[in-house]
Amino acid sequence: MRETMWIYVVILFLSETQSVESGTTERAPVNTTFPPITERRNELFSNGSDANLTCTDKMWNETFYVIWKIKLINKTRCEINFDSHGRNSDTCNDGKSLRNTSNSQPYLHIPKFSEDDVGIYTCEFAYRGGATNCEIHVNITVTPEIKAWIEYKNNTMVAVCRAENGNPAANISWNHARNSSVQQLPGINGLFTVESRLELPEGIDPENLSCTISHQNLNKIVFLEYQKVKVYSLWLYALIAGIIIAFLAGLLFFLVMKLRQHQQSDTSSSKSPPIEDVEEVEPYASYVQRVNSIYN
Fold this sequence. Notes:
By secondary structure, the protein is α+β, with helices and mostly antiparallel strands. 28% of the residues lie in helices and 41% in strands. A hairpin with a 5-residue loop joins strand 8 (97-100) and strand 9 (106-110).
């Protein structure tokens, strides 16, 4: 396709350096090199929005040809191109199309942008007077999930504010900026997680503490009353766990004591001698004595 571009350049050179008016020929010096201008930039679009990409401010009637080479994140490659003779091709077949603005400026239209459209978009654009070549890294914006809580470390109260799995990475700041630290943690699917920790010295009232999370799709202030729920829930969980453990220990102790009592009762009953019925033995003994007295 670059050979085609230089053919257009030669035609442009011949058309601009030679004009015939009233049998005379005029020549004008023209630069015939036209090296492509390489431009690299990043673009972000929200999920579900319509995305438009441009690589030049030239008008459609100045265009010789435009080629969009697309390499998506899922390693799919395709092309969309158009030339001034009306020839066009589209190997993407996913809804992307070349369009014109109201000012006849060409652009690439991506309907309902999603993660499947993330990738590298390269545009080759030849026009009257030159050519340009731009590379656009296209990504999707993801609103992070906000979490905040209070924890204790070495008898020190630490406030934590976190923005999970967003793109681009969020910014976190505190209304009390002392002793704060920010670190970026691994996210999922190439997303970014940012966490800020603030050590609270003695005398600081946590109720007056807040953190601000700034993102392309979000700007939110998180007050400590959100974190207090988490702190109290930890104490509540500990209390419930203690009650359950105490109940189970008491139940186990009761069962052990009942088992011991049962074993002791069985042992005492097995050691007791048999008791004869006196009323049944005495008549027989008196009868024997009477018989013996007769024989005597």
